[in-house]
Here is the input.
Amino acid sequence: MTPEEPDLTTMSDLRQAAVTRLRKKRDLQAHVLSYVLVNLFLNAIWLLTSPGGFYWPMFPLLGWGIGLAFHVWDVYVSSNPSEEDIRTEMERLSRR
Here is the structure.
């Protein structure tokens, strides 16, 4: 391979990682949209049926919100394991 040629395996791996990340971001956008729309609908029901009563929409807001927070964490905060982490785990598994 000459220095001008791109490493195809690296480019293929990089492309696959980019596709995976873009899919995760698209899935997160769909999750956020459904969270907002469903909770707006539940709040509208609460407002129309018992505006001064017990605020029951807080349960799905909080419960689903926790799941949404973990989804955001997975997409934007968590990182891929390092090569060292992968090697260490492989060695640990091979000792079993």
About this structure: The mean pLDDT is 87.
